[in-house]
Amino acid sequence: MSEATPGRPNEDFVAAGPGWVVLLDGATAPPGVDSGCAHDPAWLVRRLGGQIAARMALEDGKPLPDLVAEAIKVTGEAHTGTCDLENPDSPSATVSLLRRRGDAVEWFVLADSPIVLDVGEIQVIRDDRVDRLPSYTLDAVRKSRNSPGGFWVASTKPEAAYEGLTGEVPVAGLRRAAVLSDGASRLVERFGRLDWDGLLRVLDEEGPRELVRRTRAAEESETFARGKRYDDATAVLVRF
Length: 240
Hints:
Layout: E1 2-3, E2 12-17, E3 20-26, H1 41-58, H2 64-77, E4 93-101, E5 104-110, E6 115-118, E7 122-125, H3 138-144, E8 165-170, E9 176-180, H4 186-189, H5 196-206, H6 208-221, E10 233-239
Antiparallel strand pairs: 1-10, 2-3, 3-4, 4-5, 5-8, 6-7, 6-9, 9-10
Helix pairs in contact: 1-2, 5-6
């Protein structure tokens, strides 16, 4: 399930097929920032997510970073004639992938959209480099984006794909997995109203719609000192 921030276009993308899941979360541009691009994050996640999903559907076993790098390259070629792809504020997105291959389930996480695995204990895969920046001014974030020592996202540089976190777990013993945008993980990461096991339980027993409903209720009631009150929320549960 994917639900947009109330009153705004959805900047998340999700697609799934037999044995695979693709989820992207577009980064909302701060007011007044010139991205150098004629397209918004919603365009990027649909183009890039569609390219990744098409490659996942081929089931050719290509390593996930290679697959993402190819998709970033092709997406860039689609608008290099109209947009400044050298602009560090170009639209960007997280990428989270899950793929079954034989007796293993592979995962790939670029930036902070988490994958949660239940293997008898809970494992959370999340790239937290953006949480460890020394400063969050517009200029500091711009200099840190897709730069060594900073954080990495899917935007205009195919090499960013090789900075993603990768791994695999055996299918045997894997009970369920969740692929989430950070808008769907807020009940744990921002509001502290659930732990990861509780989030999986809500998804499994009550469904993604209930998780989003609870998230919207928390967003309404919380006092925000920093960041967005609402966020696009996308959640996928996979049972094994």
